[in-house]
User: Fold these one by one.
Assistant:
Number 1:
Amino acid sequence: MARYILHFTGKGASPDHAKQRLAKLPDVTIVDESARMLLVEAPPETISRLSKELPDWNWTPERMIPPPEPPWPKLRSP
Amino acid sequence: MARSRAKPQQFVVLPTRGLRATPQTSSASLVPFLTALTNVRTAKSAKSFASDLGLEMKPNFKVLDSIREDGAKLVEMTADTAKDLHAAEPGLRIVPVVWYQPAVCRYEVETRVRSAQAAAAVKTEVTVTSDTDGKPVRGATVVAFTDFENRRGAQGVTNAQGVVRLSLGGAATVERIYVYPKLGFWGTLKKNVSARRGIEVTLTPVTLDYTDALRYYYGSTPDGVGQGVTVGIVDTGVGPHPDLLVAGGMNTVTGEDPNDFGDNGAGHGTHVGGIVAARGTPPQGIRGLAPGVSLRSYRVFGKGGSGASNFAIAKAIDQAIIDHCDIINMSLGGGPSDPATQSAVHDARQQGCVVIAAAGNDGRGKVSFPAADPLCVAVSAMGRKGTFPKGSLEEGEVKAPPGTDTDEFIAAFSNIGPEVDLTGTGVGILSTVPDGYAPMSGTSMASPAVAGFAARLLSQLPAVLAMPRNQDRSDAIAKALLQSAKDRGFPAEMQGNGLPLP
């Protein structure tokens, strides 16, 4: 299932009630969290719905940044 | 259009942005297209895939691997089929597979000679020794290009005798041979080397009192410089190393131990941390620009050498803010801008902390994200002739135009663009790595050079250091840093405001 970052845009730490609400949803799993963010697994339509219901939160898909690499010429596979 | 008879090759098929298709970043049809493509493992399923989507194309493609159903795929197909796929879904990005090395010299991919040539392939022996005592150099990665333009050749790692045997297809001459030692030596580049009777390469050992570019511009740093300032390194983890004192940190990789914020084995973060805060004494150890800082490590790259998620990076920045870091160094980046990382960077600035980031190493490519974010201090890499040994790899990074001082250059690998704020020393920089010391080059090294200088500067500005942690404070730090830059005579898109100097 897709993973999304929910980011609290209000002041201070994110309120507990949003997390508690998300935890009750059957198709949402909270994978990780920080003071102002939640990493959740959920279907896109659920995220889309939640973004309207939680005005102080925005969301973005999780994505990966490649490991840092030295600037060396590389072989190309045939 | 004539159809070529090209053999199938591997391509990476990517959504419009990032690694996974989302309704926000891709057309509505792309998610189901990629999802359906996931299960194309045979000619039969390829035929069915094409038929279901009404595509007129040969079923001569198969998916070898996939990043999630809605994500990027590794596909074996001909170039013609790649064009057909792209025509069916113009939002797709289809690029040939390119094999990259991880952050340290651990090459896993070798160019395989074609089977017909394999039997006749002649193994060329490459011997790597120290130029001071003739002892073999073990564990050095040797990359030999028989056709540099097309990146053809072979690579391997030297054994205990300093020897590696490479299948170069009987080539009489190697156009370029690069040797990347693990640690303790400078790498080397040799061009147009005869391979008829094997190749012998000697390497220069690292001495810790060597005047590299960092020491050329900033000299020897007294104890305690940088005291009162906290610097966070968001990277592959820092230390342990005898020259480093890591005050704390966090591993923000989901599923890993939060307290395991030491180096993940790649060595990159330990090198970066050493440039800022190593506190050894040459020639037994090495010293960074601000050995008195409180150094914190935020590991965002997992143990297995995988990438870092934007969540891990944003969480690391969040934690660094909570830990009252004054400066955060991010020698990482790539891909499109990302709202999560961007929000974290902006939060940092609002809470008195400045984020310094590497511009990227794509050879005059565009400044990568997050360095490209307007609130990051983006750093390109410069070098100076004479601050690395003759015949070393670093000689290959010299590129026009020269600066006002004609020994100076913006590294050939460095990204450039209007987002560049400053340039930093990033060619042949000696620093700490797990189990020793090594030179490294990259904007990854230039960024912590600027971060270390910023820490040094901030420690001399008690009024700024004591300001409430808000935007005014981070603006004051950034302003002092930018105003410390000296014009080196390069175009602004290469050097930004210039090189920070005392």
Number 2:
Amino acid sequence: MQTAAWAAACATCHGTAGRAAPDAAVPPLAGRDAGWIAAQMRDFASGARPATIMHQIAKGYDEEQAARIAAWFAAQSPQEAP
Amino acid sequence: MNRRSLLKGLGAAGLLAAAPAVRASQAPLGKVVVVGGGYGGATAAKYLRLFGGGRIDVTLVEPNAEFVSCPLSNLVLGGSKAMADITVPYDALARRHGVRLVRARAVAVDAGRRTLRLAGGQVLPYDRLVLSPGVDFMWDRMAGMDTPEARATVLHAWNAEHQTAALRRQLEAMPDGGTFILTIPAAPYRCPPGPYERACQVAWYFKRHKPRSKVRIFDANQDITSKGPLFRQAWAEHYADLIEYNPQFNAVRVDAATRTVEFEFGETERADVLNVLPPMRAGAIAVDAGLATANGRWCEVDFLTFESVAAPGVHVLGDSIQIAPAMPKSGHMANQHGKTCAAAVAALLAGEPVDPEPLYANTCYSFTSDREVVHVSSVHRYDPGKKTMLSVHGAGGLSPAPSEQEAPYAFGWARNIWADMLG
């Protein structure tokens, strides 16, 4: 439940359960590879991946928190059930 | 369980799997009534259904037929967006998530009996109540604004709805060469950067359509309260002859007939369009219920659950609360409150422990023209020792400068947060 609640904070910009609006500039996270999401968080925090805002947000999460949130999004279906 | 709620349960399967509150049993967990369909309340209603696995009976009480967003509403004043662009219907909350919508104004809480009374006299029982009533205006601190005529002439336009469209009409009717005056109350107030964004938007409109006109800001604060260097840069680059900024001017009296505002040391200024933001406090229903324990203005809450410190079983969200350090009164933050509260209420109703360490972020975009954007961001984590939310050191920050690059992200933010709370 804690991980679901933490991940819900990301949903504000990235869509409920990581399903972003298809025409929105903010990318979806649902169903993305957990290792890839966690690596993006590391690279945003280190500055290896440039960003407008995620470099600031990513610095607020430690490796374990980012890994748990990444795994949660990886487990979500990119499409909502009908 | 009918076919629709069965499908809905499948749709929420991802959240369901992660929520111990909804493990095996399908027994109802309880009845939650949410007051206020803004960024905090609508989010709480939807996420109570998601985190509760459909087992929490959720009613949302909201008098308006549709949601109208405060974020982006300054673009309506500037003319680059219309009211329809910031309006979202509530029906998906009922259709897709099984929230019961009651279109009414909630008027009184009986925390002892655990009931909520509506304006029509109807009484709703609850196991837990979530109040997200936004801000109300402290008219007793603004002399001359006690008549309906004054309030129809001198607008605040600070809760979207019809005043935003009405203020736009005043700006359109104003002749070129006129003066728009905006007064800002001492912090805390809803949306710290909002007034300065508004000045940009009105100046953007004047620059294109009424270039001899002026925007004059009178701010009760010592200086710009949010994104100061970025707004100053935008004003210098785009609106140097249009915007005048006067800090430390606390408006105390209005003569609506002459559109004159008086400040606490006796100075007066006259406007063609006068836009007064009065001092603000928690929504009336929360104040009347005795929940505004901080100076009679804001509601103190337990940041693990958003339960009021004054009334067990009553949770308060969004702009009404006594904020934690460095926590803005923003729509994004209210959305985060709504989810934290929903997760905690789902756990409490299931007899399970609440998350001992909430962790969330704030993102706030402001438009300095129709296409240039600045942001402020922060990450907030619960501190068990201090029993409050603290901003995470080293995280968050400001845009380096106003840019067109951030505009798609700002519009994307709006699309996704509206879908997150109402879709």
Number 3:
Amino acid sequence: MPDALSPTVHADHFAVFGLSRRLHLDLAALEKEFYRQSRKLHPDRFARAAATEQQAALQRTSQLNDAYRTLAEPIPRIAYLLELEGVRRRDERVDADGGRANQVPTELLEEVFELNMALDEARSGGLDDPGTRRQLAEAQEDFQSKLGTVDTALLERAAAWDRARDAGESGGEILQQISGLLDRRNYLQNLLRDVAAVLSPTP
Amino acid sequence: MSYSDKVIDHYSNPRNVGTLDKKDPNVGTGLVGAPECGDVMRLQLKINPETQIIEEAKFKTFGCGSAIASSSLATEWIKGRTVSDALAIKNTDIVRELALPPVKIHCSVLAEDAIKAAITDWKQRHTEAVLAPAETAKA
Ligand code: FES
């Protein structure tokens, strides 16, 4: 029988695809490997197998799906790597002093706060005021372009981390920078979602 | 996930929402954020420099129900208390009072951080206000 039947627990999502921890992936190769393994584990092939083997195939399939979903997209891949490397937990940053890190730059917080105030005003009827509407539209553009900048920086840092790893370094500092960029990204995304909701409310 | 009654109470009827004059030398402003969820909280305190008593506390939070409840509760707790009393408040006190579940702990951390940030800002601004005239005189 194929060795695929043991419910092997891989060390991490990268290992599922036989990859080492790197942020740059060959997506075409990843997809190909995903389909190859999916076929191998397809329930039809185990229709007559023992219950335990069917179970194992199912488990491997769900592991494979998880791994693929996480690795196929750059942001989830980066967030996952930070988790693996112990830089942050699923929903929070891990810091030396026990889990809190408020390293969001003040100027970003101020921007976020101001825009939220404007959103509040717009929500309570101020949107009829063309000035408010314009201000929001401008903010939307501004945040969109900031998001673009963050994403570019993220990709650049991701490449730098790969290089550090290839050179046998830990790259810990780079991961901290990446973590900071992800935080910034969270803020920008929340804002964009809120601005969009105010500007074009879906009934 | 369901919110506790106390959270719902503070959330639907938040105490001390508002703004104080940022330029008043007796007012300290703390602006903090929780990057993991993208929420922000602003807490402002008006502190009497002689008595060190927090005379006014106002907050504005853009975030989840627990963050709003945490900041609302925090203002209730610190109003009329001294600066050192306020600094003694721990996020775990808030967690206990509001019965926050583990995933909402960071919301209470935000409130504790906001108190500290506001007081730090007040101290700084206050020292500056005291020193400023002397410096103008020098210049
Ligand atoms: S979920 Fe972020 S402050 Fe509550």
